């Protein structure tokens, strides 16, 4: 266990370092640095700017400063929004995104698992067919399509829900629905197939022959084992929710991190792009690490290598 | 000849007579032996859902690659006076032309705010989606299968190092790196196309598309490499590989002649399932505005443009949104069908 932990943590650290280095070197690929992206400033202004951001020093020194600052959590100032640090911007945006994304993940898990179970228990019947059909469609529809179709139905046609902002609970409905749609479909597919597999196991037959009541069989024996693949999906689910939030926050104009990231891309705000990339990448890598370790702790049958 | 003693070891002579014609006939195998491929194709043809999705895909390909050639409008053509038309609506100018007895081709899906015909843009958008999906998957197939084969075949330290690299790339959240690469690669590629002779083709294909191909081939091959490696690990222990080695075959020949053909089923299935995921990413990138460069339409960027006018022209969202969903849906079903037919082991 200890060896496995050390290995995984080391791998995570190496990956985060790699992402940081890649980000740094890619940003230096942009000719003229970050300031020449739009209208060109005068030579004097440029020099002053370069001195301020330390871009006049040799690359290796810049890299060292950058890594040292990064470890201290300092990602510099935003180029476009003067006077605000990147970490501050990320923090404000992330609070909003985490709330929407968290609700979406909860919704996806709490709808997807029961749906998958119901489908598996009614295998071959019409209920199963309907759920399979819906979930097959669900994994084929990109998030922005769900978001826009919801918007047409509930805002444009029915005029029921507001289209932008996050000021009341009503504002959360459409963003959460469009974020949770794909993962719900995916989880129910996953749950259905793993439930079917578990129900074919010997211990389920034993349980039935012992005369256990149906509910006890389902909750004590089947569900506990069938839910394991869903736990492994939680890591990728988080990554999906992040990218999904870029789209959803753009559609519904939510002041979250995704929206800030997209506008920093279109506005060529390089320090912000760098900071957000590293922050989100580290978040995903760490979550994957936690999920993997939790998975091995929960299921003692898995051998640690 | 009847044996006297049942326990006697005396042989029955009639058992050793040459077989006559009728006996030989009974041993001939009536059904032709079925090869792996034929068997797979037969199973695939029986699968109605997969066959339907194949037909839908062929139809969409015709729509995307052939139709624009015979369609009277082009994707960047801005028709003055025909802005913001509803489906099948004519502008005043065009009505006047029709009055004068001229043929005006209807705007089947209307036009956008710049007077561009939506139908033809939908065709080009689908073309971009299909191109990205197929080209990216082929790139992933080539890189991933080569990498996986080498790692699996040589094993030992080579395998260990190569797979650690894969592990690292696998844990990197790909979308973020793709966005980062898309943002930064544009400038070097543009200057390459403008300044270095021989690279002008970059502009004809479009910097955005090239960027997408580069980032896909940089990041998406790891899944393929893992699958191929695990397959190779089992196949390489087979007796025929040992036999080939004993007969002195070279490494490339064993990989080409013995290993790759045996993992072909897995390769085809994984590649087909890669296509929709590449399309997903492309439409996502175009939607947030860093994919294919304008004026070239993409289904993602068409949807993004339509959102701005969602209150006045909600129908404009439907065509690109439905199209991308239909394409991804059919490829998903086709991939599932191929998996059931050629690689039943892979089913989860």
Measure the end-to-end span of chain B.
Answer: 60 Å
Helices of chain B, by number, come to 14
The secondary-structure class of chain A comes to mainly alpha
Shape of chain A: flat
Termini separation of chain A comes to 8 Å
Count of discrete domains of chain B: 1
Count every helix of chain A, treating DSSP H or I runs of 4 or more residues as helices. Answer: 12
Tell me which protein chains meet in the greatest interface and how many residues each side has.
Answer: A-B, 48 and 43 residues
Assign an overall shape of chain B: elongated
Strand content of chain A: under 5%
Written as H for each helix and E for each strand, in order along the chain, the element string of chain A is HHHHHHHHHHHH
Structural class of chain B: mainly alpha
Low-confidence stretches of chain A: none
In the CATH hierarchy, what is the architecture of the domain at 96-267 in chain A at level 2? Orthogonal Bundle
Instruction: Output the helix-strand order of chain B.
Output: HHHHHHHHHHHHHH
For the record, the CATH class of the domain at 96-267 in chain A is Mainly Alpha
Largest sheet of chain B: none
Superfamily at the CATH H level of the domain at 96-267 in chain A? MetI-like
